[in-house]
Inverse folding.
């Protein structure tokens, strides 16, 4: 059956006025009943949904599965809701809810005390939009700059043109981390962040009761090492980037709007965390 016919039928199913979408339309091999039940807990309908259609929230939240893993057709994601939820910050909000549950299940505190900082450069194939050239990796596109905890869960994310150096763009993340996450005291990073950024991070957080000093620790390669080498702690953020690369939509940056690029990453992480809560593995 042509993908356009499948997409149109899904739209009629999801957005019929006042209709409640049947989860039987979702193949049992892709989404289990437990995943659907997990997704229904604590999900609030954003302001952009009409009161009569509040029941579509769960199905719309689960649609990124199809968007990332089955097809690249934009018809399978209701882009109107995606755009409005991006403007309202709804993706980040829902992502934070599931992240807290995953950490609680792993017997971790709500806020971590250590994490890893790194960036990933991807080519941008969207018509228009901001982009730049990463001379080190010889890629024209954008960078995804991320801070993850020791579980590999995403805490801070910024997408920007690839020509901006890591040491400069890292300040956008570290300033938010220093003043919003008071328990965070240690960050591991690679040699690209060495130098004046270490002193800048040390002086960033003003001492106050209950706040820990923040330190940036550079994990360096051994002198004389050749080829690939497993570095302690650095592999955690690389694993997270590997998880994102498994989502077809994130193999490259297809979005004209950089804010939409960030929301795509949050949507992929939501899918990943739902599987973890359902004991289905990462992918």
């Amino acid at each position: 059956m042509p993908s356009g016919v499948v997409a149109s039928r899904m739209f009629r199913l999801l957005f019929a006025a006042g209709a409640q979408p049947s989860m039987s339309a979702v193949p049992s091999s892709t989404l289990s009943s437990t995943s659907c039940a997990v997704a229904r807990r604590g999900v609030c309908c954003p302001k952009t949904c009409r009161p009569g259609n509040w029941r579509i929230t769960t199905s719309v939240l689960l649609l990124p599965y199809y968007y990332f893993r089955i097809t690249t057709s934009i018809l399978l994601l209701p882009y109107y809701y995606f755009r409005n939820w991006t403007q309202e910050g709804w993706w980040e909000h829902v992502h934070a809810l599931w992240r807290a549950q995953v950490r609680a299940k792993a017997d971790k505190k709500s806020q971590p005390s250590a994490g890893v900082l790194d960036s990933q450069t991807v080519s941008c194939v969207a018509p228009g939009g901001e982009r730049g050239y990463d001379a080190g990796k010889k890629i024209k596109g954008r960078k995804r700059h991320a801070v993850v905890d020791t579980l590999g869960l995403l805490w801070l994310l910024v997408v920007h043109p690839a020509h901006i150096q890591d040491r400069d763009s890292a300040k956008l993340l570290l300033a938010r981390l220093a003043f919003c996450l008071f328990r965070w005291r240690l960050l591991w990073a690679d040699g690209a962040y060495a130098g004046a950024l270490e002193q800048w991070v040390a002086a960033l957080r003003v001492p106050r009761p209950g706040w820990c000093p923040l330190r940036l620790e550079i994990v360096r390669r051994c002198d004389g090492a050749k080829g690939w080498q497993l570095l302690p702690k650095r592999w955690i953020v690389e694993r997270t980037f590997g998880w994102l690369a498994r989502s077809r939509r994130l193999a490259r940056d297809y979005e004209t709007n950089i804010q939409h690029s960030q929301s795509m990453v949050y949507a992929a992480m939501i899918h990943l965390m739902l599987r973890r809560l359902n004991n289905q593995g990462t992918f």
Q: What stands out?
A: The beta strands are 114-123, 132-134, 139-149, 154-161, 186-189, 215-218. Residues 1-60, 70-76 have pLDDT under 50 and may be disordered. Residues 258-277 form the longest helix (20 residues).
